[in-house]
Amino acid sequence: MYELLWLFLIYSFLGWILECIYAACKNKSFINRGVIGGPFCCIYGVSAVLCTLLLPELRNSVFFLFLGSSILYGGCEWLFGKILERVYHKRWWNYENHKYHIDGYVSIFSAALGGILGVVSIKWCNPLFLSLIGKIPTGIGKIVLVVIVILLSLDSCWTYSYILGLPQRFPNTEKIENRVLKVSARMNSWIVKQLKKRLEKAYPNIQKEETEIFAEGCSFYKLFWLFVIGAFLGDITETIFCRITAGVWMSRSSLVWGAFSVVWGLGIAGATWVLYNYREKSDSALFLFGTVLGGAFEYVCSVFTEVVFGQVFWDYSEIPFNLGGRINLLYCFFWGIAAVVWLKKLYPHVAKWIEKIPIRLGKWLTAGMVIFLAADVIVSSAALMRYDARSSKKPPQNTFEEWIDEKYDDIKMEKIYPNAKLTE
Q1: Closest to 235 in 3D by CA, of 257, 271, 265, 256
Q2: pLDDT (mean) for 58-87
Q3: Is the pTM of this model over 0.70?
Q4: Residue 327: helix, strand or coil by DSSP?
Q5: How far apart are CA 223 and CA 351, in angstroms?
Q6: Per the count of CB atoms within 10 A, which of 29, 88, 138, 186 is most buried?
Q7: In 265-402, which ranges are E strands?
């Protein structure tokens, strides 16, 4: 975590320099392109850390490393743009004038640039930066990190308070002091003016978006219930598939309570979110999107579960055209087919069923299901971690872990996760 935080800050700073150089060349003057006031573009830091964590196995193949980095950076850029739009009802950048783009937030040029930066960072920059970080005395390094993170947090608070209209909602001096770090009204006014000038200059084409109604369009409620439905149907589909191909009934659930395959749920909800504005595109275009994005998604899930839980839940090493046993070409095609069938045939009907739920009832059902799934994820994660720890003869450290060992011993875990394999 110490090294990852340093890498996040370094790449965020380098990304800010890159963005400022690009803006200066385009506008013939210096423009601070960061969303926050300080010299950081956090999207570069997040993308670099994700590449460091998820793509080290691809370092020996420049092509796949470039492809993986492009997808990761493009995904981060799209996600950051969507989050900013959802939270603040504003569009911060727009690539709709580019020939190839996704939702106006990602262009083929920006994704390719991210791929190049990913290759450079993994193969050359990371070793250099980690070597330099290692030369900093640990005590001093931690102090510097804490100071920078605190300043970054304060900077973010001020920026987002302005974006959310906090100064406008609390014009009274005393309320400003109480709610926004207790600084003086004069200083608050000055900071707000500077932020306003900088943001309007850096993002002159900010567009306001209309708020959405429950389950209409591609709202949170719609995506959440698509996740639940997709997780349940995915578990059933995989169970039947294993019965037909392997001749046995086996659990394919990701969680200890209920028949839910999280990978399928995230895949269905994520594909809908990413491809929602392209659902009227041709079948071939959707198939291509689904093949690439589905393969990348499955690869990331494989790395994540192995790193976090020490378990390999699937291994395609014996299937031709596989990448590290994590994905294979045939199953990527399945993702492409699933994208076409889902968006063209199934989604319109499922969306109508969800939208028929009364708003009040839908919100209560969603809140209840969120609580249940959150508890399910916590218990499942704890059970998997103890399953891994027991293989190393590590005893439980508290009452909760003792309860986990009693309720979810090795026999039960092997029944719930029959294909899981422990890793070093």
Answers
A1: 265
A2: 83
A3: no
A4: strand
A5: 10
A6: 88
A7: 311-312, 322-323, 327-328
